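for the record, two folds in this file. i put them one after another cuz i was lazy. first one right below, seq on top, structure tokens after. the second one comes after a little note so u can tell where it starts
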Amino acid sequence: MTTNRIFLLLLLPLLLLTSCQPARQEGTDKEGDTVALHYARNLQMVEHEHYTLATLRNPWDTTQVLHRYALVDRNEAHLPTLADATTIVRVPLQRAAVFCAVHSALLCELGVLDAIGGVTDSEYLTLSAVQHRLHDGSIADLGSSMAPNLERVMELSPDALMPSPFQNSGGYGRLERLGIPIIECADYMEVSPLARAEWIKFYGRLFGVGERADSLYAEVESQYHELKSATEHVGKRPRLMAEKLVGGTWYTPGGQSTMGILYTDAGAHYLWADSPASGSLSLSLEHIMERALDADVWLIKYHSDHELSYDELANEHSAYKQFRPFREQHIYGCNTGKVRFFEETPFHPERLLRNLINILHPELHVSDSHPYFHAL
């Protein structure tokens, strides 16, 4: 047997093995640069040479991926071929349908108002710039976020839809059949203030202002830590209760929820800080009274065309008068119909933290330019 024949016989198994392997695909065989995310648990971003791969973890089943996006420059001629099911999104977005007021507010702050093509739930938007464009028709009113007007969406022909996903929602119905990329805005499912705010980096990259978004988040993070450190050695932590009865149930933040963490970071002894819940607790009035009758401070969020008063509270439920904050008038209300609590605080938790510290620890003399909560 010649030397060449022996060589071919030895090489044949290797050739057959190689031919059975799947072809390596662009985007999976090269490592990119991971975007630094220190708090967000449901978001990962890796920047490759010609695209950014953003992976959203399913917050209801953390072993699964909610969605994966390849953000590709709209002028890039060649699209990456990716092994997994991935939605290609041409960026920067130029005409997005934005379903939530908090994202509209962030986009305005990032300087990309012109990229908001349409919004839902316009009656809840207080941003004057967006309202002005709604009135002159340059931003489309797409109806309800729960059931958008499909004809208006099709007429707008946006380059992306930006709804918030919900557990067991059954998907997005007919919107999914339009062939428009759906950006699932799951930031609200993060369970710490800075984790949710860190999604600023994702939205910045969607709209071509990644550096601006990174800079904004760095300032948010820095101010938050500075404020939090100011309360670490306070002498007394006021006992804090929150919210009020709604239809016979008292919904109060869990100890590991965004609001629960904010209360603790602001120097409060939040009375449900020991709860491991990352969402709201559904409690009875009796349960609240067992723990909170002698609270020092009571914070209430409400939505109204007028300011809440002690008389109105007493008329809502006579039991309120038994709480010490009611008797000593240490109740602070946040009228979400008058202030931009839901539009601003998710991506600016440092503003809310500043407001809370000013209420709980006036001795620290923290300046407060965004007073969401006011004394009743």
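(here's the note) second protein begins now
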Amino acid sequence: MAWRRLVGAAGLSVLVAQAACSTRPAEERAERDLEVGHAHSRGLRVDVEHGLAVVLEIREAADGDGRLSLWSSAPSQRFTLKRGDDAPTGWRLTVSNVMRDSELRVVGGDATVTAEEGDHATEQVYDLELNSPEVSFELMAPEARQRGPFSFALLSDVQEAIDRVQDIFARINQEPVAFMLGAGDLTQQGTDEQLSRYKRELRQLNVPYYTTLGNHELGKSPTLWHDYFGRASFHFDFRGAAFSLIDSGSATVDPLVYDRLDGWLGEHTSDVHIVAMHIPPLDPIGVRNGAFSSRNEAAKLLGRLARGHVDLTLYGHIHSYYDFENGGIPAYISGGGGAIPERFDNIGRHFLVIEVDPDAGVRNVRTVRVD
């Protein structure tokens, strides 16, 4: 009997440990977010402020100069390059997913910057001569500094429809939007091949795509996303408005991300603030598995957003279109990137165009049907 009690206690301990682990399914991604934008190789240290760009490559070329590649997650960013004694002074910098007319300028240290032409609309190339051991740069489009009205697009849930996404991108290129926001599920399983393919297709888009991940990006590896698109939860400002993208791909938000969100909300209580994530806290019709796994957590998150005076919430995950309110906040679900649609809704593939005025709020949300 004593032996049975011992086994029972040990078994209970295992179950408790497993339950403790399962209560934070997004913990690894929240911790991995903090590593994005920081890298060291070939004697060069790269640090991107707030992790708003992922370092794709640091290498030494055959000509002896260095090659550095970044993928941007925001309209503006700052980063610092620290060169060791054994590192080249000359570096070719390629920054992808940037706004047109973005300018790179030195804000600390000494460097010579020569701009080159990129291969497509959202790529910029620079030849850098690092004349001091540490140089800080700012990359920003001039319009990003100017407070005023603007529009952006929202597109989510492409998944297996990647072969048809080109006409959506072509249609977005016809809209006067500054950038496109994404609420996840770009791919079917988040594999290297699928993430690389999506990036290749984005070369047809004339504006950058700032996006969080969805549950479909978790199929291969919980953190493979970070190697391609950077942080899953991040924040940026544009023309007087604030944007917070939150990782809800596991139908929950990790406590580490809540801490960051609290900071973002506190900084922008008087500003227009837009929050986007993949899985909505609450399903507007309540009959699908299309919401957070805990209603208590859903209420907790929506209470935070309401107290933080958030102006608009945007979601994906449900392959349809819904216009509703949660916690008194206007909310839209737009999962029209081409993934298998809900039956009989007749929405088809679509994206949203959202007009924002930092002095008047969110002025209009328009649905653009592609099919």
